[in-house]
Amino acid sequence: MMNINCKDKIETDIIGWFDEVAEDSAVVQRRTLRRILELNHGVEYLKKWIGDIKIEEIDENVLESIYASLVPLASHADIEPFTKRIADGDTTPLLTQQPITNLSLSSGTTEGRQKFVPFTQHSSQTTLQIFKLAAAYRSRIYPIRRGGRILEFIYSSKQCKTKGGIIAGTATTHYYASDEFKIKQQQTKSFTCSPEEVISCGDYKQSTYCHLLLGLYFSHEVEFVTSTFAYSIVEAFRSFEEMWKELCHDIREGSLSSRINIDKVRKSVSDITQPNPELASRIESICVELERADWFSIIPKLWPNAKYIYSIMTGSMMPYLTKLRHYAGELPLVSADYGSTESWIGVNVDPSNPPEKVSFAVIPTFSYFEFIPLFRHKLNYNYQNGNITSTNDDYIEGNPVPLCQVKNGQQYEIVLTTFTGLYRYRLGDVVEVDGFYNKTPKLNFICRRNLILTVNIDKNTEKDLQLVVERGSQILSKGTRRAELVDFTSHANVTKQPGHYVIYWEIKGEIDEKVLDECCRDMDASFVDHGYVVSRRTKSIGPLELCIVEKGTFKKILEYYIGNGAALSQFKTPRCTSNKVLLKILNVCTIKRFYSTAYG
């Protein structure tokens, strides 16, 4: 009873702490800014903008306006010369007074290349803090047993050292190697099924097999299933469909598949497992039935005590929700919290909301946040010599405002000032304010700011593309032979005139070509961006091209990124690409092409 009361007290305390800082978010934000500037006063990046201003002598309200007037908005291009010098061994205070011993690598799937971002102990501490806070909110609705297991599909990539001796790796890799990861398990009293050797082995296929094997060994102890991104869970269970007989054999015999060839992984898993014929027979019997039902509801059937599935499910993860719900059956999908390699931003305080309706309450102690108001507007066109040109960008931007001045229903781009050395850094995420938790805003993630598809005057975002692909993929079920969309990406092909959109689909199952023709035509007609519609009508953008790629194509894309240092935990399929290597993979693997007949 004492243990239960202790756990309840920890949860009550951390929610109570957040209630207080959320209620006083304006003051907390000003204090957060002051603390960041005091801790990093005199660093080279800041000194060129604010000189030797005595931060401690300035009133917090005045400091906020002085900071915004003196320090310009920045992009990664402004930070990159400093992170390069850190990577090369420059130990002078460039971005932070605290020595930077780790650099995080972004996934590289959004902008086509990986970026260095400073990672300090503060990064691990805020990760632990948000995990504990989010767990407290989840336990209010989906209480779990103390001492239970978590089936976590988590993966570290290999860490390396830069020329200057700095440890470089993904943010998730740094976190899984930190003391805070171990502390989280102790304090939440929920333990991952897999040992550290499995998480850090660097081979995602071997890690996935071991995660599944150990998850099955502890099947009655598993309280929930999780991964950083929904993609990883879907991929794990797609692998399970092909490996379940081998997994059952290993459980029955207490053996370990020859596909596991890393000695430390074999030893760590073999130390846990032992022959269990009864468990193997039970799993085998369930899998025979599941296979007939196309693996519907596999998770609750094999892990009967699981309460929910927990992962990042917004943004580029939305297309995987249909498959994830198929595997989850009646289990709730709980969207994990909002953050980036640069900083954690908000916590999901309403875990009962479905992923499509989730919002995130900003945590005002983690970073200093500003918001650039974004306004959609009608495009103005110039007609010259039969050509159409656009005179404006995707949004009209207002002046950045502090957190306490955001308005409900307004869209913004987030700007970060962090403890780890980023100052007025444009994150590139578009969010919309969806009410408030006490006095801190709740944010809906809308999309990445960068335009991903544009040929002429057209401007279509990741979200626009997702809506179009969702519309087209719904037609797949109309065929006499049912098929499903596995994954997709796109490319704006401007090598020939007129330029046109190319959408690449990988499909599971067979489908009639006339259905794919209809999918192609329907997607082309579903883009509602006025610039696209006008350009299609005037034939200044050509017909949309739908390319069907062979099975396993998107696995090749995954392996390309992992081979270049990404971790599966951080991987997101790029929704639009101009990367020559990826385009070569996609085009070599294309087995059918369809061209839209929309617009005549």
From TrEMBL:
Domain GH3 middle, residue spans = 361-448
Q: Provide this UniProt record's keywords sorted from A to Z.
A: Ligase
UniProt entry tagged with the keyword Ligase: yes
Q: Does the keyword Ligase apply?
A: yes
Q: Where is the signal peptide?
A: none
Q: Which Pfam families match?
A: GH3, GH3_C, GH3_M
InterPro entries from the UniProt entry: GH3 (IPR004993), GH3_C (IPR055378), GH3_M (IPR055377)
Domain of life assignment: Eukaryota
| Domain GH3 C-terminal, residue spans | 464-580
Name the protein family: Belongs to the IAA-amido conjugating enzyme family.
Question: Mind telling me what this protein is named?
Answer: Indole-3-acetic acid-amido synthetase GH3.5
Its ancestry begins with:
Eukaryota, Viridiplantae, Streptophyta, Embryophyta, Tracheophyta
